[in-house]
Amino acid sequence: MTGLPVVQLDQLHGIEGPLKVALIDENWCIGCTLCIKACPVDCIVGAPKSMHTVIEPICTGCELCVPACPVDCISLETVTPGRTGWAAWSPAQADTARQRYAFHRLRVERQGAEQDERLAAKAASKLSDLESASQLTDPDALARKRVVVEAALERARARRRNTAGG
User: Which pTM was predicted?
Assistant: First the structure.
């Protein structure tokens, strides 16, 4: 199309192959959710400590879930034997995969931002608590706390004396 010679894929970065989908062996799945976190198109569903499953029509066969699984219960099955690369994908499948990946990235970024906001709010709350804890430097409050602690220590010493002597 461009008039340039066809350049082969660099074998160091993988080889072109048929379209595959992940399959999870339900008997071995422990529900760790690591495969869910690894999937870039969110095609694995499940809950913690429950069996997971793959939504096959949207799986891209990227294989990222396979090394993430600690019990090795994920395998890949070829769904387009004899067809590789773009011949194995329809334009609709490619578009769906791109859209799902973009949504996945957006969701991960949003969750990260929400987590950052929660942590910032928690830090601000802790700072506010420390600032309002000026009562800790109040001499009367410190004296009351000292009396309570000393009384507790004396009770513990008395109990220890009674146990040792009895």
Answer: 0.64
